[in-house]
Amino acid sequence: MCLGIPVKVVEIEKNTAKVDVGGALREIALDLCPDVSVGEYVLLHSGFAIQKLDEEEAKETLDLLRQLAEVS
Amino acid sequence: MRFIDEFRDRELAKALIEKIRQTSKRPVQLMEVCGTHTVSIFRYGIRGVLPEHIKLLSGPGCPVCVTPNRDIDLAIALSRQRDVILVIFGDMVRVPGSSSNLLREKAEGRDIRIVYSPLEALKIASEHPDRKVVFFAIGFETTSPTIAVTVERAREQRISNLFFLNSQKVVPPAIRALLQSKRLNVDGFILPGHVSTIIGTKPYQFIATEFRRPAVVTGFEPLDILQGIWMLVRQVEENRADVEIQYRRVVREDGNPLAKNKLKEIYEEADGHWRGLGTIPGSGYRFREPYRAMDARTFNVDVEPSKEHPECRCGEVLQGVTTPLECRLFKVVCHPENPIGPCMVSIEGTCFTYYKYQ
């Protein structure tokens, strides 16, 4: 039940955003995560954005794993 | 970056599995607290690629499964009121209560509606001002802020026919209860990534400081889970007990402060009643005074005395002390078409997951 999926913000109007869910557009509420811009990814849970995804952190995690793969 | 495929890379997964093998020497039992983790672990075959001395236990992290019969019976009783529309999340519809379930009640003509977001309950209430709309609120900290926003909007929009059967749960006190029960030997915790998205890491510090167990907030893709396990076994081998974050692209140390504030505005801590774990202080919510008129528990309805199936071991499965394979009913009379307990109903229930993947 705690499933959350990363979705891309396509359009913002007040505290509602249109997001791309596997090619389909859906409206979600931004009450819990208002500081987002078009083009950014948010985590979608029960009709709400609950957090913004941090691309820098994601890259750092993947870089770390690639380094592990190289040394092992 | 799409934040999904990148974290399913086969070569990086192989490297992590190798790292886990190199690092881990001691036998360990790790618990994944969250049902969404249980599903990912089975779906990606993670148990099968770990060294034999690393055991994974499934924990109590399925809100549907831990909802006690008395709340399901109350929801059923509410749905039988002529002026009530009961609004629920889909996972709840087939969960057996003491003598019925909501799907059967729906078939018998009760007005029960399934929604994906609590905001839909608000819409239903505004479209049916002559009916009492009751939202059966279940979920952990991931979901509770979305319910809090719904409560807040109902008040702002002066919608007076929307009520909430609050049955949400708070996760850290349940982990404390598991550690205190001593029935269970857990060497480390794979902590729920999306609960932590809201609450951050501070509420888990006791796991490290009081109980000296490592804990890692982990994401849900295969690389996340493997990296989380690697971070845990590294702590074990280094004799460390810290609360670390693997899922850094989503989880911040202080969580989502806005969501936490919304929760605090609407709710105060209360006893939480869990299937299997019993009553745990501070693990549930009650409306703060300004919102109590929206509490569906104040409705005057007759609820049957709740009873459990005598042989269903869901309660023990939720505590991680029994696996579904040890239950006499599993696969014999209890299967997804005829679930005896909620762990076989929910798509994140441990019994359902074992049935599907084992």
What does this entry look like structurally?
- The complex is a heterodimer of chains A (72) and B (358).
- With 72 residues, chain A is α+β, with helices and mostly antiparallel strands.
- Chain A has one helix and five strands.
- The longest helix of chain A has 17 residues, at 55-71.
- Chain A has a single domain, classed as SH3 type barrels (Roll), CATH 2.30.30.
- Chain A has one helix at 55-71, and strands at residues 5-13, 16-21, 24-29, 41-45, 48-52.
- Chain B is of the alpha/beta class.
- Chain B is 37% helix and 18% strand.
- Chain B has helices at residues 10-23, 35-43, 46-49, 63-66, 69-79, 102-107, 119-127, 144-156, 171-181, 193-199, 205-209, 222-237, 257-266, 314-318, 350-357, and strands at 28-34, 54-61, 84-89, 112-115, 132-137, 162-166, 188-192, 215-218, 243-245, 267-274, 278-287.
- In chain B, the strands form three sheets. In chain B, strands 2-1-7-8-9 form a five-stranded parallel beta sheet. A four-stranded parallel beta sheet of chain B has the order 4-3-5-6, with helices on both faces. Chain B has a two-stranded antiparallel sheet with strand order 10-11.
- In chain B, helix 8 (144-156) crosses helix 13 (257-266).
- Chains A and B meet through strand 4, strand 5 and helix 1 of A and helix 1, helix 8, helix 10 and helix 13 of B.
